[in-house]
Description:
Blueprint: H1 23-38, E1 42-46, H2 48-53, E2 68-72, H3 78-89, E3 96-99, H4 118-121, H5 134-146, H6 148-163, E4 168-170, E5 173-175
Helix pairs in contact: 5-6
Amino acid sequence: IMDPHLLFGAPRVEGFNARKPAIDEHERLLKAYDVLRATPNSLILGSSRVDVGFDARSSAWPADYRPAYNLGIRGGGPYVSLRYLQHVLSQHEVGLVVLGLDLEYFLTPKFDLPTGEFESYLRVTRDGKVSRDPQQHMGDLLQATFSLDTLTDGVVTLTANLSGESSDIVAGNSELAP
């Protein structure tokens, strides 16, 4: 019911589970599932600067490119953006991709490819092939249903919504507590 990680797409009820404070700790998981459900026509990719600096819900987006989704990821570089782009394109086409690149990526001759569990949330392998392993998706759903982490995040979600002070994610935009 709380769906703190946006894996199930449960209806958001104001004052109960509408805001999702788990974005602070589980952004890569939340966005991997939420972006596919949103089926955006435009993607905004990049680091936290993009996450904060672009508004996917802005009326400035041309009608042909709506809805937009902000896939800016804190601590994400070009590789992370590529992986999330592959993830989305494996499920449907998009009309526009906006990629924000930080100057710092061009100041070093070499950067290491990040590793981490975010790779397991994606529907494609590193070489761009669609992953047909339903076990990972099922594992994510089981973890989101029966884990202590999810129970804790569910309580935090309820508490934050009751108090009215919570971070949230809407159209990929990370929104800070009011």
